[in-house]
Every structure is written in C-alpha cells, then in structure tokens.
Amino acid sequence: MHHSEEKPGYDLGHPASMKMLWSIFGALLVLTVLTVAVAQFNLGAIDFSIAMIIATVKATLVAVYFMHLNHDKGVNRLLFIGAILFAGLFLAIALGDVSEYHHEIEQHRIDNPDYMKKVG
Predict the structure, then answer these.
(1) What are the tens digits of pLDDT across the range 55-114?
(2) Cβ 91 vs Cβ 52: under 8 Å
(3) What is each CA distance from 9 to 5, 6, 13, 14, 85, in whole angstroms?
C-alpha cells in the first residue's frame, strides 16, 4: 500500500509541539523530585500508596503523550485504563493479605532470631 492509499488513523506519526513535549518532560521531572522528597519522610502505611500513585501518574503521562495513546483508538485507551485498574486491584489484594499476617511474621522473627541465618 502506497502512502497515498493509507487508511485514516494509521499515520506514521503524530505531530507534537515542542511546548507540549517540554511541559510533559517538566511534569515528569517534578514528579520524580516529588518521589525522592516523599521517600525522605516516614509516612508509615501510606508510603507505598503515595509512591504508587506518583508512579502511575508518570506512567500515564508517558503512555498518553510519548506513546501517543491520546491519538490512538478508544479500545486501546480502555485496555490501558483496565490494565492500570487491574494492577491496582492486584496490589491492593496482595498488600491486604500481607498486612493480615504481619503480626504473625513479626512474632516469628521475635521467637526465632536466628531463623534467617539458617535459611540464608
């Protein structure tokens, strides 16, 4: 198929203004600095949640603008959103399970201080 016969929506690339690209780059830098800043504080149980939210926002910016998801078909956007939601659900269930047994793990560490030396 020649370039003149291409189907609409199947372009070789999508033009992006330098202003928009620099804006996204700046946002990614700010979010990276924010991630490092948040890591300096002990926020307890919400540490991981905040880090994951920031990482999700950064991944979304990369996918939408640098991978041109904003110019893609709706089904691809739906799949991306579904993947993010599924990953969030998976992490929530996994972390909920870990917190359920945390007291037993800590008690085992107290009762068996040499356990890791035997295993490792």
Answers:
(1) 989 988 888 888 878 777 888 888 888 898 898 888 888 877 776 777 787 888 888 887
(2) yes
(3) 12, 9, 10, 10, 27
Residue 2, φ and ψ in degrees, nearest 5:
-80, 160
Residue type, 108: H
Q: Are 62 and 21 in contact (CB under 8 A)?
A: no
Q: The tokens of 50 are what?
A: 């905040």
Tokens of 23: 């804006």
DSSP secondary structure letter of residue 6? P
Which residues have a Cβ under 8 Å from the Cβ of 31 and sit 6 or more positions away? 54, 57, 58, 61
pTM above the 0.70 mark?
A: no
The one-character DSSP state at 16 is -
Count CA atoms within 13 Å of residue 110 on its CB side. Answer: 6
